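> example.struct
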């Protein structure tokens, strides 16, 4: 049984009309996302690696209507996509 390479797969998608020519699938077009909040805690080292401050993070969260870090299960930042925030699930009362 022969193995299909990623290039063969993309070529088949284009020939099959599933992908239109000109669509870029280059993963280098996307900046990696960095976990900056985990279980309601700020990941200080990751912020430092991004050259961002805790104040920058808190301001970004305020703009997205998050009032406290503790409400966030995890939060990621990427230069291309900005913040991705996953809040803690709301508990049933």
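> example.seq
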């Amino acid at each position: 049984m022969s193995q299909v390479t990623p290039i063969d797969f993309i070529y088949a998608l284009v020939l099959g009309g599933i992908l239109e020519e000109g669509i870029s699938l280059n993963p280098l077009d996307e900046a990696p996302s960095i976990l900056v909040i985990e279980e309601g805690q700020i990941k200080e080292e990751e912020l430092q690696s991004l050259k961002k401050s805790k104040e920058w993070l808190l301001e970004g969260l305020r703009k997205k209507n998050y009032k406290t870090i503790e409400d966030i299960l995890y939060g990621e930042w990427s230069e291309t996509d900005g913040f991705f925030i996953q809040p803690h699930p709301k508990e049933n009362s």
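> remarks
The first strand starts at residue 34 and ends at 38.
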